Amino acid sequence: MRKNHLSTLLLIAVLLPLLSVGLCLILKASLGLTILVAAAVSLLAIWFLCSSFRKIKDSWINIARTVVHGDYSQRLQEFGIKEVDALANEFNQMLERLKEVITHLTIHRQELRLLLNSIEDVLWAQDDEGRIIWANEPFQNLFPAYNPAQKPHYQEIIRHPELLAYLENRKTSPDKKIEEITIQNHSYILSYSLNQEAKRNIFILNNIDAIRQTEQMKKDFIVNLAHELRTPMTAIQGFAEAMLTSPEQDNTRYLKIILNHSQRLNHLIGDLEQLIQLESTAQLELQDINLSTFFDNIKLILEPEIQEKELNLEIELDPAIPRLVCDPFRLEQVFINLVQNSLRYTDKGTISIKSRKEGNKVIFEVSDTGTGIAPEHLDRIFERFYVADPSRTRSRNGTGLGLAIVKHIILLHHGDITVSSKLGEGTTFKLTLPQKTLESGNEV
Q1: Rounded to whole angstroms, what are the CA distances from 92 to 2, 4, 65, 97?
Q2: pLDDT exceeds 80 at position 133
Q3: How confident is the model at residue 209 (pLDDT cuts 50, 70, 90)?
Q4: What's this model's pTM, rounded to 2 decimal places?
Q5: In the chain, fewer beta carbons within 10 Å around the N or the C end?
Q6: Count of CB atoms within 10 A of residue 89's CB?
Q7: Residue 148's pLDDT band (boundaries 50, 70, 90)?
Q8: Which one is the CATH code of 215-279: 1.10.287.130, 3.40.640.10, 1.10.10.10, 3.40.50.2300?
């Protein structure tokens, strides 16, 4: 409707003065009146023209201000001027594309921040002046004085002498990019990378506690294995040598001792093979079993050992869970190992196995009235070769691998096992297994 508004105004600005001059001449008006009328009409046209451009200018300035403040939703309006409206449309399209880019960048930045905050490693970035310009949550947990809003110098936040020395030496020895340090009893590998274009130094403290723990467990395993193998082998060698120099009537007693240690050695090798299999490629052969029949068989297997120690084995099953989907051979190993473990630490009283249902889980508890386990041993009780009382374990031909085997079997069933104990009162192992259907393997 206001199309070609600019052209019209220009036309009016030029023609009206001429028309005014002509009119005044026709009317034989004075020259001064003619000039006055022409000037007035010209000023009026210029005022209309400037007013339109002022509205355009104000509109563009307002839109620019909203963009500067992060609002990309506003758009330029059309003014009915072809050239101006075309430029406004291009600008609006640019704003739309800019809004999409900013939205994607914001999403990616949030995802990156969530990712960096979720890892255990400590990360932070410094500029050339040593100011910390960014850090993830593990850094803030390790150095609580850090305030991201202030962008402080690293010397104001990091008080650890070894780390400070590394950061200082990095300026004179830039090639030294990796170093192992200990902070608050945790081991870290410190490394950094330099972004020369952005003039940023990115530092990473990789927590290697798990690696060190694994290395220590391997060392302990080798030491314990060597010890467990050396004990029966030394006995076998010693009594074999004794047979060579002793009267023939003593040979029978020596042979019995050699046989006993040979059996213990064979038991140890069997447990090792079983544990390695469970930790690598073991697969369960699931069956839907009758729990009453299952535990009757376990009681029959353990009866000689129970009678030998003059103990009672009580089994109380919840009638609400008569059946269970599991690998019966593996689960049998679990309960036999747990009861045999209780036998080593129980001199009188009762060993019990109880079951109950909690939601879609089946809970088994194996309890005894034995000597109990000291609190400092509870966290390590499922480690290979770890025994709370070595003398009792060896006296019952234990290998120190039974509970490690138990835990792996339970984990293969997607279950959980915990232990609680009080010295002088006894120990309880709690097993939690999912109640599944055999057809689908899904929980009931």
Answers
A1: 21, 22, 14, 9
A2: yes
A3: confident
A4: 0.51
A5: N
A6: 13
A7: confident
A8: 1.10.287.130
